[in-house]
Amino acid sequence: MELNQEAFSECCLVMEDSFDNVYKQCRFTEKSVGPLEIKVVRPGTFDSLMDFFISQGASIGQYKSPRCIKSGKALEVLEKSVVATFFSTGGCSFKN
C-alpha cells in the first residue's frame, strides 16, 4: 500500500484548521494539546475491532464503530494494524 505523504500532511492541516478557537488556543498558545495525528490502518482493521467487541458481548446487530475507545485491548487491535502515522505541522491559521 503506497501512501502519499504530501496528501496526508495536507489533510492534517485542513482538519486542524477546521477546529474551533478553543482547540487552537490550547494547541498553539497554551501548548496543552499536542499535534493532530492521523494513523492509517490495514484493510480489515475495523472488522477485527468489531470481532473484538462482539467477543466481549456486544450485539452484532447493534454494533457501530466507536468514536472513542476506552478499552486498552481494543486500542491494541487498532495499534497493531497501524501502517503509517502523520502529524500536523502546526501551520493552520489562528488569531489570538
Automatic annotation (TrEMBL):
It comes from Microthlaspi erraticum. InterPro entries: GH3, GH3_C. It comes from the Eukaryota. Residues 8-72 form the GH3 C-terminal domain. This is GH3 C-terminal domain-containing protein. One of its GO terms (cellular component) is cytoplasm. GO terms for molecular function: acid-amino acid ligase activity. PANTHER family: AUXIN-RESPONSIVE GH3 FAMILY PROTEIN, GH3 DOMAIN-CONTAINING PROTEIN.
